[in-house]
Design brief:
3 domains, elongated, alpha+beta, 192 residues
Length: 192
């Protein structure tokens, strides 16, 4: 690749320079759909400032990112790709540990698949609740914290005169429910 095609990506501690470039590459795939976009290839070059060698004796290391996203500029695409690294492990931990996704209720595959889908749906709803309705202090809260701070503090179920009533604590209404309702109403106005 020509030297003028490389763009500075970032300079790290210890004098490590990362540069990136877009590669014009057309692989010979046997089967490709006619309406699909071709892949985009970005190369990252890692080298030291003073031409020093890495521990394994190499002077330059190259890494590639292959994507089908063409709308984003190369630097922004690399930042986005690096920013999502490791997030699936956190989601997996929450599904397994907090939402009982690791303990299947049956020996039947269909029942276990439905159980896992229910856990993923619960996780997605909790994420939506944290982003849209709850205060900023709950933005990174785990399900256990939400359970004790929000769901168990809402109110108390009371049976009286053949009816079941939910008595909501005034503090809970003022601190959590009323602000959440106003945030949701504002979103409805924007999207509606």
């Amino acid at each position: 690749m020509p030297e003028n095609s490389w763009k500075l990506y970032r300079t790290q501690k210890g004098g490590v320079i990362r540069e990136w470039s877009e590669v014009v590459y057309v692989p010979s795939q046997v089967s490709e759909k006619k309406d699909s976009l071709p892949y985009r290839y970005l190369v990252i070059s890692v080298r030291r400032q003073q031409g020093e060698l890495f521990e394994d004796g190499t002077q330059v290391r190259h890494y590639a990112v292959v994507t089908n996203l063409w709308e984003m500029e190369g630097q922004a695409l690399l930042e986005w790709q690096r920013g999502k690294a490791g997030t699936v492990e956190q989601v997996h931990h929450i599904l397994i540990s907090d939402l009982a996704g690791g303990v299947f209720p049956s020996y039947r595959h269909g029942a276990n698949a439905a159980w896992l889908r229910l856990q993923v749906l619960t996780y997605n709803l909790l994420q939506l609740l944290k982003k849209v309705a709850l205060a900023e202090e709950y933005a990174s809260a785990q399900p256990k914290r939400l359970r004790f701070a929000i769901f168990t503090m809402i109110g108390r179920l009371v049976k009286h005169a053949g009816q079941m009533l939910l008595r909501i604590a005034t503090e809970t209404w003022e601190a959590i429910i009323a602000p959440a309702r106003s945030r949701i109403a504002a979103l409805i106005l924007i999207w509606g």
